[in-house]
Amino acid sequence: MHELIADRAVEHERREAKCPPEILLVWNRKNRYNRRRAKRVISLVEEYSDPQFSTLLGHQGQLLFENGMGRTNFRLLAENVNEWNGRKWQESNENLDYIYERDGIVYGVEVKNALGRIREAELTSKTAICEHLGVVPFFAVRWMPQIWIQRTAKVHNGFVLMLKWQLYPLSHAGLARTIREELGLPVDAPPRYHAKTLERIVKAHEKRVNSLRNSQ
Predict the structure, then answer these.
(1) Which residues pair with 109 in a beta bridge?
(2) Alpha-carbon span 7 to 118, nearest angstrom
(3) What is the C-alpha to C-alpha distance for residues 193 and 163, in angstroms, rounded to an integer?
(4) What is the reported pTM?
(5) Residue 10, pLDDT above cutoff 70
(6) Cα 96 from Cα 129, distance rounded (Å)
(7) How far does the chain reach from its first CA to its final CA, in angstroms?
(8) pLDDT digit string (tens) for 133-170?
(9) What is the mean pLDDT of the chain?
(10) So where are the chain's domains?
(11) Which CATH fold topology does 51-215 show?
């Protein structure tokens, strides 16, 4: 995008906003600049970027995850935890969102219901916490680069559940639809995880169980 702007292949303008403090608007040079449209875009971005709404989305992501894990017979053992089975993480003040267990396999879980990807530094630290506590790293995120997913699986023997959608509460289904249709962003307001999403969790777990049995 910066190259397109530098080459004057597109028009652009920076606008002040409440949250984030600045928005970069970009449009095709062949199209007339519609100030009403720009105002609408800024209004929507400010609405879904509001810190209070972001907190609500974080809680919603966790609620849907908890519901999904309960429906697939995973057992919740702990929340907001940095200590497990006699081991405590002391390198930072960070916690894992959850500790879950099924068939004797214990998972350290981090849930991120955000449009943007998890920061690589946070991915690294949360993985380190899991390894220190002796639990399997499990990340439930909207999106993550494929190379990070492969690293989590192959290097750290973990699992990434990539949801592809940011999940809104049912009470905000109208806003989700508006943002999806007008801005083209991957947001939705489902009542629960789709059955196929749960199948992915179960299949990954069963593959891990079978691998452990075959290695014994």
Answers:
(1) 98, 138
(2) 31
(3) 9
(4) 0.91
(5) yes
(6) 8
(7) 52
(8) 999 999 999 999 999 999 999 999 999 999 999 999 99
(9) 94
(10) 2-49, 51-215
(11) Trna Endonuclease; Chain: A, domain 1 (3.40.1350)
